[in-house]
Design a protein that fits this description.
The structure holds two protein chains of two kinds. Chain A is mainly α. Chain A contains 13 helices and no strands. Chain B is built from twelve helices and no strands. Chain B starts with a helix and ends in a 6-residue tail after the last helix. The chains are: A mainly alpha, B mainly alpha. The interface between A and B is large, with 100 and 102 residues.
């Protein structure tokens, strides 16, 4: 304080600013280094050892690439990759269909649209575990409300055992993931819609553009950057999801919903193959990184 | 005027229908939670609580360790939020006012953390916490949650600090205030809404978290959080859906209320850092 009083503003000078920044960011950098960077390096180290969870604390095992070759040769790993891929494609399409649709709807003028905007985003506030539990109950094989709807509509004659059949269980997880994921898309797209200047639409109307043409040539191009960001985040969320699938099916039946995330968890904490699980997890991370940089580069180039 | 009213009726009805479908699961949770056990298997199902009963809430709160789970969740979320806020304020202020190459590198680095699968990160964290004797303690879960909350808090607060004109601090600098003094006495007091929203958001992220908690705390039932607890009831032989839905409602309804009340502020967090 005394120094500052003698040299007013000294700490604010350009020479000090960089040090101040480092000083302020330092604590975060240290904690992130301890909780993310160092653990990741340990995961990499584990992935090069044929190690089981029971050996934690024992001396390091010899270097080996076995975990990676084992993954690439295992049908279970490729099955999990396929399941993750299928989730990514279907859930992303679902999230964008519902999210963009809801955003366009509540962007119209009508009484009560403020409330409607709040409500369409509401599933975001429901914890994933709770959402998954609700869907598991709605799709219950005997007394679930979805079965009642299907029976009433004549879509089926007998109650469907949703969670014990591969395709049905996969569909239930997809629905649950879309329900938890679409509000983010809706909020992002709504913000994007509100940022489009009204003059653009007026100009298009003066040029004689119909409603569909205005949507196609004004709305969609303006939404592209927002959608690119939302796409990356939705895909990352689906690949990384553990709670929804684990709570609804636990990865079953017969691996139909065992995504890479669930497979990693199972290998590490049900079968104790911690080195193998680390390898699978790191491969997943590589896929995520490759995908994100691809989309970011494409949208930056466009 | 008349015509306008007609034009608006379409979207209004459409929004009503869409909301009814999209929010049905939340409604169904509440209806089931309020149903007495013998009405769960009714056919056709009751879409409105015919004989609302709080029996399921009573069972879940007093015959199950629900209160203990809630307590644990509050402690974990409180700890991780406290640590997140201290680091997030400093880091966000650095990014907003004292940005340098090193500061930006850390800022971008924490954003990349969003790509790391939880199921991958939890493996080395499990090993480390076991080595340090922290495994299955509430501290371990709180620290793990910080890997999610700190990156987001830094960027949400950076965005908030950006919206505060730096002239205020410059004036203070001329009066001889140090940068930390300016942060403490000038920036933070006018940032209270942003600080509150960030803290609330971090708290919700931690309260909802499952993968880290379940892995790190599972071996010690006394330290289970609400999300582990809810997932565990379903694994039992006879499924009392009204009790599970009552537990779910206890966990979700406070968050839903907070969301409806403070949506404006929370949405800022939802999209924070997304532009980067």
């Amino acid at each position: 304080m005394a120094i500052a009083a003698r040299f007013p503003g000294r700490l604010w000078r350009p020479g000090s600013r960089a040090w101040l920044g480092a000083f302020l960011m330092g604590p975060s950098a240290i904690v992130v280094a301890f909780l993310i960077v160092y653990p990741l390096s340990r995961a990499l180290d584990l992935s090069f050892q044929k190690i089981r969870i029971t050996r934690i604390g024992a001396p390091r095992l010899p270097f080996t690439l076995d975990n990676y070759s084992r993954a690439l040769e295992s049908t279970e790993f490729w099955n999990a990759t396929l399941v993750s891929l299928a989730f990514v494609v279907l859930v992303t399409i679902g999230c964008f269909a519902v999210g963009v649709g809801a955003a366009l709807l509540v962007n119209q003028r009508f009484p009560g649209r403020r409330v409607a905007r709040l409500l369409v985003a509401l599933p975001w506030a429901v914890p994933e575990v709770v959402a998954a539990t609700i869907w598991a109950w709605m799709f219950d094989g005997s007394f679930g409300v979805i079965n009642w709807i299907f029976l009433e509509l004549g879509l089926t004659d007998t109650p469907i055992a949703w969670l014990s059949q591969p395709h049905e269980a996969f569909a239930v997880c997809t629905v649950a993931l879309v329900w938890s994921g679409y509000p983010f898309v809706a909020v992002m797209v709504l913000a994007g819609l509100q940022a489009i200047p009204g003059e653009l639409y007026e100009a298009a109307q003066m040029d004689g553009a119909r409603a569909w043409q205005r949507f196609r040539h004004v709305t969609l191009p303006a939404l592209r950057p927002v959608c690119a960001i939302a796409l990356v985040l939705v895909v990352l969320r689906v690949v990384r999801d553990f709670a929804t699938v684990f709570v609804i099916t636990g990865g079953g039946p017969v691996g139909a919903t065992r995504s890479l995330a669930v497979f990693t968890y199972e290998q590490a904490f049900s079968f104790y193959n911690i080195g193998y699980a680390a390898a699978v997890g790191l491969i997943t991370l590589l896929l995520c990184a490759a995908f994100s940089s691809m989309i970011v580069r494409r949208s930056a180039g466009a | 005027m008349r015509r306008q009213a007609w034009q608006q009726a379409g979207p209004a009805l459409g929004a009503l229908a869409v909301c009814a479908v999209l929010l049905f699961p939340i409604w169904w949770m509440l209806v089931t939670a309020l149903a007495p056990s013998d009405e769960l298997r009714a056919y056709p199902p009751a879409f409105f609580p015919a004989h609302p009963s709080l029996a399921a809430f009573r069972t879940i709160l007093f015959d199950r360790p629900m209160l203990r789970w809630i307590m644990n969740s509050l402690i974990v979320a409180g700890l991780s939020t406290a640590l997140t806020m201290v680091l997030g304020v400093l880091g966000g202020y650095a990014l907003s006012r004292f940005s340098s190459r090193a500061v930006r590198a850390v800022g971008m680095g924490v954003l990349l953390a969003k790509m790391i699968p939880t199921t991958l990160l939890v493996i080395p964290l499990y090993v480390l916490f076991r080595e340090y004797g922290l495994l299955a303690t509430l501290t371990s879960a709180a620290l793990a949650h910080c890997t999610v909350t700190i990156p987001f808090a830094i960027w949400m607060l950076k965005a908030y600090f950006d919206s505060i004109p730096p002239e205020l601090e410059e004036a203070a600098a001329i009066d001889g205030t140090t940068p930390l003094g300016a942060l403490w006495r000038i920036v933070l007091p006018i940032s209270l809404p942003g600080l509150g929203a960030t803290a609330l958001y971090a708290f919700i992220l931690s309260w909802n978290e499952f993968a880290f908690s379940r892995t790190l705390l599972f071996s010690e039932p006394a330290n289970w959080t609400v999300t582990i607890g809810i997932a565990s009831i379903r694994g039992e032989y006879i499924i009392a859906w009204n009790e599970i839905m009552a537990a779910s409602a206890i966990v979700a309804v406070p968050i839903i209320v907070v969301f409806l009340w403070l949506e404006r502020y929370l949405v800022a967090g939802l999209t924070a850092g997304a532009q980067k």
